[in-house]
Amino acid sequence: MKTKKQSHIMPFLAGFVVTLVIVSLTSFAGASDRRGRFALGGALGFMTDTPDSTAFAVGLSGDYYLTNAFSIGPLLQMGFTGDLFMIAPSAQAKYTFDLGGIPNLKPYVQAGIGFIYADLKREGEKDDDTSFIIPFGLGAEYKLTNAISLDGTVLLNATNLDVRDENLFVTVLFGLKFAF
Fold first, then answer.
1. Which of 33, 90, 94, 119 holds its CA 20 to 30 A away from the CA of 2?
2. Is the separation of the CB atoms in 149 and 143 below 8 Å?
3. What CA–CA distance (Å, rounded) separates 64 from 94?
4. Where are the domains of the chain?
5. What distance in Å separates the CA atoms of residue 92 and residue 111, rounded to the nearest whole number?
6. What is the pTM of this model?
7. pLDDT digit string (tens) for 86-99?
8. Hey, what long-range contacts does 70-73 have (CB within 8 A, 24 or more apart)?
9. Percent of the chain residues past pLDDT 70, beyond the cut
10. CB atoms < 10 A from the CB of 171, how many?
């Protein structure tokens, strides 16, 4: 059953990425000011210290730039192992730094608050819980074009899950971000 669910996720993610690439290549070709712009991103990576050790991670994010440096938006973290499913939507605030000497590199810091649901099924036992999550971390974008960037993020996630008493885990994500 789990294999069937995963087989539906991958075509959806592939279609989502292709659509974002097509739209982003046609928008704001000369724009360098981020104010009032949207950016959507998708990333893959891993989560450490989860209730089931290290998990495969998928991250989806959105940013709306209120100023050239400050943005707000959703973040969705998902973690998977053979026995664990975690999903954590949150609202994030992000501050992006402009480096004068390296205009294509944009480091950032971010923090947010949201909820997490974890479901661990192992050897006949089931353990699940819902709690708050406070993700905070840092990352960097490297602009490939005015609309497409490589993105790397490291998040420290504080929570109060009662699934194996794991209250702190790290998410590492690498992916693409598309500006509109």
1. 90
2. yes
3. 10
4. 2-179
5. 6
6. 0.81
7. 999 999 999 999 98
8. 70/94, 70/95, 70/96, 71/34, 71/39, 71/96
9. 82
10. 26
Mean pLDDT is lowest, of 44-48, 100-104, 121-125, for 121-125
Q: What percent of the chain has a predicted confidence (pLDDT) above 90?
A: 63
Classify each residue of 44-77 as buried b or exposed e, where b means 16 or more C-beta atoms within 10 Å of its C-beta. Answer: ebebeebbbeebebbbbbbbebeeeeebebbbeb
Task: Give 29-72 pLDDT, tens digit per residue.
Answer: 334 688 999 999 999 999 998 878 899 999 999 999 999 999 99
Q: Give the separation between CA 156 and CA 31, rounded to whole angstroms.
A: 32
CA distance 130 to 86: 10
Give the residue among 136, 2, 134 at the shortest CA–CA distance from 80: 2
Q: If DSSP codes are grouped into helix, strand and coil, which group holds residue 3?
A: helix
Structure token digits, residue 82: 């053979």
Which residues touch 24 (CB under 8 Å, ≥6 apart)? 147, 148, 178, 179, 180
Query: What backbone phi and psi angles, to 5 degrees, belong to 107?
Result: -70, 155
Query: 2-179: which CATH topology?
Result: Porin (2.40.160)
